[in-house]
Amino acid sequence: MRLSLNSRLSAISALLPALLVMLVVYIGATSWTVWMSLTNSRMLPNNNFVGLRQYEMLLGNDRWITSVHNIVIYGLLFVSLALLVGFLLAVAIDQRVRAEDTIRSIFLYPYSMSFVVTGLVWQWLLNPTLGIQHVLRSWGFEGATFDWIVRPETAIYCLVIAGVWQASGLVMAIMLAGLRGVDDEIWKAARVDGLPKWRVYVSIIIPMMGASFATAAVLLSTGVVRLYDLSVAMTNGGPGIASEVPAKFVMDHLFERANIGLATAAATTMLITVIAVVAPYLYWRARKGEVR
Amino acid sequence: MQKSNVDIRSLQIGFGGLKVLENLDLHVGASEFLVLLGPSGCGKSTLLNAIAGLIDVRGGEIHVGGRDVTWAEPKDRGIAMVFQSYALYPRMSVRRNMSFGLTVAGTPRDEIERRVGEAAQMLRLTSLLDRRPSELSGGQRQRVAIGRALVRHAGVYLFDEPLSNLDAQLRAELRVEIKRLHARLGATMIYVTHDQIEALTLADRIAVMQGGVIQQLDTPKKIYREPVNRFVASFVGSPAMNFIPGQLARGSEVAFIAGVNRVSLNGYAFRSQPTDAPAVLGIRPEHIELTASNDPSAVSARVEMVEPMGADTLIWCRLADSTAFSFRHDADAQVRVGDTLNVRFPAEALSLFDETSGQRL
Amino acid sequence: MTAVAQPLPAARRPKRMTPARWGLYAFIFITALYFLLPLYVMVVTSLKPMAEIRQGNLLALPVAPSIDAWVKAWTSACTGLTCQGIKIGFLNSLRILVPSVVISILVGSLTGYALSLWRVRGANILFGTMMVVAFIPYQVFIYPLVRVFSFTGLGQSLSTIVIIHTIFGLPTMTLLFRNYFASLPVELFKAARVDGAGFYQIYALIMMPMAIPMIVVAVILQTTGIWNDFILGLVFAGRDNLPMTVQLNNIVNSTQGERAYNVDMAATLLTALLPLAVYFGSGRWFVRGIAAGAVKG
Q: Which CATH superfamily is domain A61-258 in?
């Protein structure tokens, strides 16, 4: 359809905000961040080019190393546990259980809550003096210890517990949609073939659900890189720097420690990581779209 | 190969308050090809799924090969099933699709290979064994689905509208293939369809269903020639049977009166003693014959429309009392719209139905 | 021949509750406890006096339930320097929420409409970039944006945070509406063109009224997202407009002396109230929103 000049101008005017956002935020801000990471900017940005010096500093920075170490542990555990729990929940709900809507609501409601709320609740639950540990001891398990949140080597696992609690419902919703999309006749065929249910899931259904798993995994992973609120609210990076994460590292160095060069180098590292994960996924989805 | 009979006794099926089947009895003999025919929602698929054990029954019994399998698992019923949407396992090769059930059942490897090879050869799938379902055409997919059923060496094969996802030409090809398969294996087959051509061509016997009830269970020929009620008469046959309302009259001979027209019923096999009651006359388009105007049994009608159908021509006419009907004539009929024709309705090809109950008289 | 060789199966109706079924319900029950525990603990803690919290059991029901902690959390809890309770944050969040939701949906739907139905050169590049950006952490953009806004004179203000929410809501909103409009029959659009409707007329009079289901989904998505935001509010809203999540964190994590867990939990619940209400009030729409948001890319 040929467009008149008038409607073409209208279309372009409608796209102006998006265009502006693309130029200023996506391209402008990103390039500036990358550029600043190559300078020795401290409290204010400057243009003293220092090459990759900030990245070298980053690699020598204990706090950054801890952050990266933490995010890897958190990422692996959080993504795999959330996928596992979410998938199991979806399978369980898919068995035509009673009160399906209620059960689904129970599993999904945490996803409507903010990370701040999530972090504060779990901080309270995991509080060793009055929380779950206290409950266990008052029940007669005198030796019970569950003080992960105050111990540097385990604090990051507390973030995993809270994160899985918050996000499993999302995975469940995605997986349930996938399971409900499986042709009913596949199930009938499998029953006539005499396959046990677990076998159907393992050999037939899970291989069919690749797209659901990929979508859920990508969504969870991008949440991992963004992890900030939860760490701030739950442990504020502590004890010490035991539960620091990269996003918090960037924020602290930008606004409190006045080290913009280092902060932007960290941000650029995050950017590259995300693109390395997301680009293949988006490419794969686009390809799939074309084939269809 | 085992050939089981299937015996269904006063079967009841319902969902919630809805009764789908009530007190249904059906016997399918060993090696028989039985077609369940009916419009959608008539309960034919429900019945087939119940035989397969895929839905629970409320009452009654299902026997396969003499065993009561009413509450047995589908895999223990000695059945195999082919589905409308093929239901192939998408992430498995054709070979694995066909062998998977046997593998899980712990059948020895060489036996599996033998059966898969045999079925693949029978269905001309040998060259496709390593492909994925997504790489196959619709017809090939359905042949794989049939193959997956065949390797089970079941006593009964169930087909749930297996051809309705295919285009007309493929449907015709696969229909022949299934018929050949039945002839070769002599297996018991129960086949659900809403397509009367499939039913008429494939079946040893057809069960025409409506509203959860088997209306008529008979050979295709009987179903076609002597439908037991107006539903069966109108559902089977294309172009559809003509229905002409009128009145029975007993005089010197029993006749059917429709307005000014009188059709002699001499030679019609009445099921019970006829009475002078309103009735509906049914006749298939190909049974109406052209005749001369001086024929005493001639009925005159005006031509309204002519539909050439290739092999023959369908002529739409209207009687003086404005009842419309169609009849088949050979393709080179010189008939034009507006012509007046004289036709006769041969008594031995007629069907008569009670006006209120719709039952055959 | 395989099946018949086996012993005859019992022709008896199987019991409804098999062991597997029991296991299934046990699994659901136990996981449901894990999911409900925090909500339960929040509620009972917020209703207990501090003495009872110190001596009693975390899981015990309050002996003498009281809403004192709720009143205190709402009106007089200290958020750092001031002690006016979380109601300040609640009002701030509302002031941020309403314009942000409205503007981001307007801009997003207009962009989605222009990208789906009108062939504009470079539309695919714009859209593709947006999809990639939807995944990038805010930390990459945050500092330059702070500088840009202080350069324009807006600084940290209500307008700034509304613009920021619009910017970061744009990819998801655009995707949502683009996909929806693309799924409508093209004939509709063509008929409107033939009837002489212009670009904005088609948008306002034909497309948006049809997109009401999507608008509902978008409102749910944006409301929970913006209400739950922490980092953007912290950086861009300015001291006088800090949203509820930030205030909540200040109440809980920066109090001096002994911590009032009952007040903390009451404040936490108050903060979670709106998203919970949206969630339980919208039922399946929330799931639809997730599904729509989940197809990012």
A: MetI-like (1.10.3720.10)
Residue % of chain B over a pLDDT of 70? 100
Name the residue of chain A whose CA is nearest to B157's CA.
A192
Per CB-CB distance under 8 Å, the chain C contacts of B68 are 8, 11
What percentage of chain A exceeds 70 in pLDDT? 96
> Which of B83, B88, B101 comes nearest A194 by C-beta?
B101
**Position with higher pLDDT, B109 vs A280:** B109
Q: With 70 as the cut, is the pLDDT of residue B9 above it?
A: yes
For the domain made up of B6-235, give the CATH fold. Answer: Rossmann fold (3.40.50)
Q: Do A189 and B80 touch (CB under 8 A)?
A: no
The whole-angstrom separation of Cα A170 and Cα A112 is 10
Q: For chain B, give every domain's residue range.
A: 6-235, 242-354
What is the fold, at CATH topology level, of the domain defined by C87-294?
A: MetI-like fold (1.10.3720)
If we measure between CA atoms, which residue out of A188, C13, C15 comes closest to residue B59?
Answer: C13
Inter-chain contact A233–C137, Cβ cutoff 8 Å? no
Contact C32 A107 (CB under 8 A): yes
pLDDT in tens, A215-224: 888 888 878 8
pLDDT over threshold 50, residue C1: no
Residue B50: strand, helix, or coil = helix
Q: Check B87 against A188: CB less than 8 A apart.
A: yes
Cβ-Cβ contacts under 8 Å, B75 against chain C? 3
Q: How many CB pairs under 8 A join B and C?
A: 40
Give me the CATH topology for the region B242-354.
Answer: OB fold (Dihydrolipoamide Acetyltransferase, E2P) (2.40.50)
Convert the pLDDT of each residue in C71-109 to its tens digit: 888 888 887 778 888 888 899 999 999 999 999 999 999
Contacts of B69 in chain A (CB under 8 A): none
ipTM of the complex: 0.84
Residue C294 pLDDT level (bands cut at 50, 70, 90): low
From chain C, pick out residues whose CB is under 8 angstroms from the CB of A106.
Answer: 32, 35-36
Subunits with 3+ Cβ pairs within 8 Å of A are B, C
- Chain B partners of C11 at a C-beta cutoff of 8 Å? 61, 68-72
Interface test with chain A among C116, C136, C176, by most A beta carbons within 10 Å: C136
In chain C, positions 230-259, which contact chain A (CB-CB < 8 Å)? 230-231, 235, 245-246, 248-249, 252-253
